[in-house]
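STRUCTURE REQUEST FORM
Protein name: Non-ribosomal peptide synthetase
Source organism: Nonomuraea deserti
Requested output: structure tokens
Priority: standard
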Amino acid sequence: MDNATGSRVAAAQATASWPPCPDGPAGTGRMPVELGGETADALLACAQRLHVSPYSVVAAAYLLMVGRSTGTRTPEIGLRLAGGNRRVAVRVELAGSLSFDQVAGEAEGSIKELTEGGVAAVPAMELTDTPAGSVALTLTVAVPLTEEWDEDGGRVDATLEYDTARLHAGYARLLAERLVTILRQAPRADTLDDIDLLGDRERAALVDTFNRTAVPFTGLADPVHVIIAARARRYAERVAVADGSRTLTYRELDELAGRLAARLAAAGAGPESRIGVRMEHGVALVVALLAVLKAGAAYVPLDPRWPELRASQLVTEAGCDLVLGPAGGAGSGLPHVGVDLDGLAAGPSRSVERAVSPAHLAYVMYTSGSTGRPKGVMISHGALANYVLWSASRYMRHPADEPAAPGGSVVHSSIAFDLTVTSLLTPLVAGHAVRLVDHADPRALPRALNAHPDLELIKLTPSHLRILNREPLAVPAGPRTFVVGGEALTSDLIAPLSTARVFNEYGPTETVVGCCVHEASAREPGAVPIGRPIANTRVYVLDGRMRPCGVGIPGELHVAGAGLARGYAAAPAETAVRFVPDPFSPEPGARMYRTGDLACHVPGGGLRFLGRIDDQVKVRGTRVDPEEIRHVVLDHPSVRDAVVVPLPSEEDVRVVVFAIPGSGAAAEPSAADVLSFVARRLPEAMVPEAVTWVAEFPLTANGKIDTRALGEPAPETVLSNRPADGEPADRAESRMMEIFEQLLQRTGFGTHADFFDLGGHSMLAVRLMARIHKEFGVSLPLGILFDDDARASTVARLAAAVRGGAERREDDLVRLRSGSGRTPLYLVHPAGGEVSHYRALAAELAEGRAVHAFQAPALDLLPEQTVPALAEEYYRHLPEGSPSIVGGWSFGGAVAYELAGLLLEHGRHVDRVVVLDGHLRVPEVPENDSLGQFADEIRRMFDIPDRLDLADLAGVTMEQGVERVFAAARASGRLPETVSHAYLRALFARYRAHVRALAAYRPAPRELAVELVQPRDADHAARKRALRDWQELTGGRVRAHLVDGDHYSMLAGPQVARVAATLDAVLP
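Status: completed
Returned output:
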């Protein structure tokens, strides 16, 4: 054990005590201590050699046993003569180099103090684990006089008494055995470190019995993709994966993955080759991952939200041959394969599934590294299969052979985080469904759980759980299983999950997600244990000499067995340091992984996590090494030296930087510039919260940087002085500015610039709210971005809202402006679900009218988006008691009419319906025609002057068509960089669903007053037909109003003012 490791263990030991014994009965237990025969002879021999009383040898052994067992470096025990009233304290610092002889000498001096030098006549002695206060452990020992020793056979009478409310009986027995073990070794030990505390029974229990985990899983020799293919043959038409816009059965998933694998194989993919996967959450992502495995290659997961520099670095370091991404995306300078599911389905049926061995590589996942570079953890097929088969058997409650497997899992975390392996692959090997949601939105998980009450498996971190506990959750259809990992778990977090099974899963990335598990209970106080090793896994808690640590004694956790990684990619030296020979395995060449984590065995079985030996921390479940952050900060030209300090907060860890400016830097270097520099190179969780400039670092007495003396980064020191108007005024504004810069991929704007004016859109707005929640721990409603109160979508206004600690649940209803005195107006989105079209109209309407808009829920939350279904959904969000006006543009007019009908049916007052160029009877539109209409929507939405050149759409798949729209819009130069292909694909899926819903809508006649606003430049015949349809439906209760513009321009530019004036004139 090196010095740093030893100091961390010492720190853990300094605060340790007897292992807790929860709910133990009050009383005193007694246990004889076997000090006869060989042990008694060793005791006497040691006493004679040292010229001390045998009592001093026993006292020294007792002192060492108490110190080591409680994890106390400087134990202090009580010593009293039997029948006496006076007790003296014996206190010794148990340095490893100290000899047992020296400890016995200290005890001898204390005994002489009690007996005034007459040690030989002592009949018995009492030793306690503390010299004063509440005693938990008492050893009473009677040593015969030396001349009686041979006559009595060397028998020493000793009894251990213990407080049953504080110590388990089994643990007290271990303590008695440890005392005997120490006495037997004492005569031969040069130093205290030479004395092994464990007896044969305890050693066997911890090394052998605890690690009897062999389970011969059926199919363990098969790689995961082969197991999933077998499920596809058995459950061909069962749903396998779904996202907000698409669902695949097991048959479809297997066929598409096989076809993509054939393309990859033709491009040279095979065993040991590596393919990057950089895609948003969606069914195509699952197809891509399985295709890589079927091709025999290993996948390298790359978060699409990582900075480009980070992704490019890892692609190069991993040695990727290809990068899989969305159709038409960029491939980080390497041969790129776009994943077009429709193209695969329509293409050749040739499929590939190459044979691989359990030793072949399955994936390479990168974690933070102390060398300043990320480490690529190489996981084999055998290791992956062991974990996934075990987790399926442990976590999935329903057998896969049911007619329709219920539940399944929700994938809500990044694929670059190994936590996702559980929720993604475990259900698939069991024949269950996987549902994918946006991993950048922290509220996507609670929304998914409410929308799909049958979801069964939820894998998450404690940070996720904190967010989940704030949200009201619907009653699930059946028992749920929550698997919590990535960070230390406390019982208070699981208290709200009283009806669910909750597992605390521990495991570094180097051990395939999880290697220990404990089924948790809210009744367990404090930190939840990490439990026992999973199937075919061995774990050891070892001291600095690689000896097993006894129950309750801190040591470094080591992991061995089937789940071990092969090592680190292209890092043999680092691999040799962390993956070392397993001295406890009979298998030749067996290895174990040094986790760098402190742990201890607890009485009754199981393990408890105690923290890190090194400086690594977890930020929102992601392993972060401050040294890697420091290396990137030092690359900035303004920084001469830096120290990265993790600061624990109430719910997570904040990472801050203290930096010394370089000699060539400006007098007042920009902290924001350094943070922006780091954000372009590291994942979000690794970007520091602040940079504080200092002249020099304070040092401790031994010359090390005193991080405690650095303190908290004060807001006024984050930036060099108070900035001018339009620049960040405090840390909150600085951090908000960084979020804007990272999401919008632009700089050079002030704190009063509007999010939407800078290129933001509604899908990006959801990510903005998620980032604000992650950075500040505050939930802001999405509607605040559309609020008319002093430009609420600016850096300054959002920072102010964060300071106010706004905390409201987001729903479908967005407030566009506040007001009173006029009847509120509730607008329904057009096809596609966007509400930003209404911002200009809301701003132009007369003061005093509150305006709200309904944004469409994601397809995965409300798959059936018919007109009646949407109306039902929005009815739930309308406030009761007050009159209201409902309306909508285009498709929104039909939903508004249906919503008004629901209000009437429930006896509520609805003043009238506002229809902005809405039509009722529309034919079913062929998919290619809807693509053209969608292209027009995109052109108008982003103010693209010319029609988009889509060429001939005949025979083009939906995926290819959306790609053409995206490419044409990008070529126009008007499409913001923040608008991704994935965004347009999701938008089109919802647009197409709404177009179909309108074609299928059959409205019922109702006595409703309708204000029909129509554009003058629209087709005359179509305009007349729409007016006639609305008149027939309402019995003639329609007033028609003509305004300038066409279907799109009526809500933009100067025309929207005319629409607002028209509505102001007719609405109450």
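Reviewer notes: The chain is about 35% helix and 20% strand. Residues 1-16, 146-152, 715-725, 806-810 have pLDDT under 50 and may be disordered.
Form closed.
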